[in-house]
# Entry
Amino acid sequence: MSDLPPRPLALVVDDEPLILKIVSTILAPEIDVIAESRAEAALARIRAGERFAVILCDLMMPGITGMDLHDALLEIAPDQARVMVFVTGGAFTSRAREFLDRVSNSTIDKPFNSACLLARVREVIR
# Structure
């Protein structure tokens, strides 16, 4: 039996496979990662009781957006809504701008560097 503390678990939600791969690779040395390409799948995991130390989520995705996922989590798992970090490529809609003004969650702009990503994740996990 190991005396090591359990590693934090991150959920990464992005419709771009390359972003999922990059973020997973950056976090893997110190954080276990589950990657989902659809917010619907991420929501199903949380509805089923899975919990994450941090959720990195693309703001704008087809179907359920990161904004929609956040709003759903406020209803079913507010603790999970609080640990969301939004990843955005810019080109905001007015809805996205209003959403980011309304929530206190952190954001990371694409393109991002690994040091910035890790620092933001560590802040949330702390």
